[in-house]
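Give me the fold.
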Amino acid sequence: MAGRKRGKHTQAARVLRLLDRLAGRRHGVALSVLADELDVTERQVRRDVDALLEAGHDVVVGPRDGRATVRLVSASARAVVVTRRERYTLLGVLRVFDVLRGTPFFDDVESLFEKLTETMSADERDELERFGERFAYVPDGGRKPYDGKDDVADALQTGVLDRRLVQYTYRAPTGKRHGGTLAPYALALYRNGLYVVGQRVATGADAGAPLPSTRPFVYAVERFVEATVLRKTRFEVPPGVRLAELFEGAFGIFFNGEPTRVVIDFSAELAEWVQARVWHRTQQVAARRDGGVRLEMDVVNTTEVVPWVMSFGPHARVVAPEALATRVRDEHLAAVDAGEGRRRRRPTRAPAGSSARASLRSARHRRRVAAETPTTGAGPRRRCPARRPAR
């Protein structure tokens, strides 16, 4: 239909999001703001408001500050007292979640922030705005792009909250795609990225049953190409699966594997810095005679340990296990080979203008040598006559 804006969500999902946006807003939300947040026209927002009225919700549409505003009337509404420190901390939480912009997590935190802001006085809101220059969050290693992943992230979050299966298509780091049905157990935040901890399940008559000999796995949210909630299906997390226990011995996001004793020696230059941090819950740090320290820990999966050790360059040496030491050494050698390969591929021809500069330097050198060459016999210093080349 001409003039109609196609939304990102169905009306049922949109109405639920509208209800969530209105909840706790004493002064309501402008109709134009709701239209932008839901990516629909104002006319469609009015139709969604009508759907809320039909469902028994007390919703009022009226003017406020010269704009049409939608307000949810709640009989149980009550003021929330937020202290000055809590307001500052809340701003910090919003800054941290900025790396998840484009996902329901950021939208929900931002909505919560706005709801609490509305309960503050004008002076408190002004102070909160000034707090923006007193807290900064610097992402370590950048952030992941979630543009265009609204539906994917929403489906995965719905699956986690409602314990519903999700049909998906996933693109592996190699570029290869695969799909199936996933039971999303939980969401995890790691290095400014969002991950799903889940298990592939069977389909058809055995829908919802875990696949044989399949353990929970970690999926990066940005690598999901498609994700759709299967509304009529549900799953139960196996009794033996506990999220805290899965990551108990992990070093990073990968938790599948057997515990391995990792021993790393650090130089004296980094000794104090290494001791100032808790790298793993099982770590033991001991001083060495040369001023360095030795770090020991029991790690389930050493995938993330390799780049971590390499980041210290010559200041870290893997003592055990031998397999880890070999992997680190091979990665260092591969980096050296890659660098030498680039140098070998450089053109041997001198760049434009270099020949003229080299000739000029050569001429200057000849004149300097000639001027410093001693003359034969007495009398004033003079240049020796140039010899002619033999014919």
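Residues 1-8, 350-360, 369-391 have pLDDT under 50 and may be disordered.
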